[in-house]
Amino acid sequence: MRKCRLGSFAAIVAGFTVYFLLNEPGTANAMHIMEGFLPAGWALFWWLAFIPFFALGLVKLTRMTKENPELKLLLGLAGAFTFVLSALKLPSVTGSSSHPTGTGLGAVMLGPLSMSVLGSVVLLFQALLLAHGGLTTLGANAFSMAVAGPFAGYAAYKLVMKLTSRERVAVFTAAAMADLVTYVVTSVQLAIAFPAADGGVWTSFAKFGSIFAVTQIPLAISEGLLTVLLWNWLKSYSPGELSLLKRQTKGGSF
C-alpha cells in the first residue's frame, strides 16, 4: 500500500514536470544567473568550487543506492520535487529570477552532499530543456542552489532538532533556510562579479539582496509550509523508507 501511494505521488510530480516541459516559454534569463551573464573568470571559479562537492556527492549516492536499491524512488521524488519548485519563477534582478528551490526536503532526507548531485542534474536539465540558466553559469548556479542551500538547510534542521526535537519545525526551517541561503549566495556571486562603482562589492550585495528579498522571503515561507505537508505525507505512507534514510545520515553524516 505504501509503495502504491508513493508511486501515485511520484506520478503526480511527473505530471507537473511534463507540464512545465511542454508549456514553459523558455526565456534564457529565467533561472538564477543566465547564460553568459558572468565574466569568464568568475564562471570558471564557481565551476571549480562546485566540482569537489559533486564528486563527493556522487560517491555517496552510489554507495547509498548500491546498499539500499529500494531508496531509488525517494531519490527520484526528491529530484522531481526540486525540479518542479525551481521551475516556478518570478522576475527579479537583471540576469536572474526568484523561485523556490525545493532542495531543503532532499537535504533533510538524503544529506547535503547527495543534493549537490540531484540539484545540479535538475539545473542541467532546466538549462538544456527549458533554457533556464545556462551551461557557462551552471557552476555558479549549482554552487548556490545545490551546495550552499542544502548545507544551510541541513545545518538548520540539525540545530532545530537538537534544540527543540520538533521535527515539523525543523523541516520547515530547513526548507526556508535552503531557499534563502541560495539567494544570499547568488547575491554574493553577482556582487563580486559586478561591484558598484560607488561603494564596491558591499553596495552591490545590498542592492541585489534587497531586490531578491522582496520575493524570496515569502517564497521561502511558502516553500517551508509545502515541504512540511509533503514530509507529513511521507511520514504517513513511507515511514520505512524515511527511517532507512535517517539511518544513512545518522550521526551528522553529510
UniProtKB/TrEMBL annotation:
<comment type="function">
    <text>Part of the energy-coupling factor (ECF) transporter complex CbiMNOQ involved in cobalt import.</text>
</comment>
<comment type="similarity">
    <text>Belongs to the CbiM family.</text>
</comment>
<keyword id="KW-0813">Transport</keyword>
<feature type="transmembrane region" description="Helical">
    <location>
        <begin position="108"/>
        <end position="131"/>
    </location>
</feature>
<keyword id="KW-0812">Transmembrane</keyword>
<keyword id="KW-1133">Transmembrane helix</keyword>
<keyword id="KW-0406">Ion transport</keyword>
<keyword id="KW-0732">Signal</keyword>
<feature type="transmembrane region" description="Helical">
    <location>
        <begin position="71"/>
        <end position="88"/>
    </location>
</feature>
<keyword id="KW-0472">Membrane</keyword>
<protein>
    <recommendedName>
        <fullName>Cobalt transport protein CbiM</fullName>
    </recommendedName>
</protein>
<feature type="transmembrane region" description="Helical">
    <location>
        <begin position="169"/>
        <end position="196"/>
    </location>
</feature>
<dbReference type="GO" id="GO:0043190">
    <property type="term" value="C:ATP-binding cassette (ABC) transporter complex"/>
</dbReference>
<dbReference type="GO" id="GO:0015087">
    <property type="term" value="F:cobalt ion transmembrane transporter activity"/>
</dbReference>
<keyword id="KW-0170">Cobalt</keyword>
<comment type="subunit">
    <text>Forms an energy-coupling factor (ECF) transporter complex composed of an ATP-binding protein (A component, CbiO), a transmembrane protein (T component, CbiQ) and 2 possible substrate-capture proteins (S components, CbiM and CbiN) of unknown stoichimetry.</text>
</comment>
<keyword id="KW-0169">Cobalamin biosynthesis</keyword>
<dbReference type="InterPro" id="IPR018024">
    <property type="entry name" value="CbiM"/>
</dbReference>
<keyword id="KW-0171">Cobalt transport</keyword>
<dbReference type="Pfam" id="PF01891">
    <property type="entry name" value="CbiM"/>
</dbReference>
<keyword id="KW-1003">Cell membrane</keyword>
<feature type="transmembrane region" description="Helical">
    <location>
        <begin position="40"/>
        <end position="59"/>
    </location>
</feature>
<feature type="transmembrane region" description="Helical">
    <location>
        <begin position="208"/>
        <end position="234"/>
    </location>
</feature>
<dbReference type="GO" id="GO:0009236">
    <property type="term" value="P:cobalamin biosynthetic process"/>
</dbReference>
<dbReference type="InterPro" id="IPR002751">
    <property type="entry name" value="CbiM/NikMN"/>
</dbReference>
<comment type="pathway">
    <text>Cofactor biosynthesis; adenosylcobalamin biosynthesis.</text>
</comment>
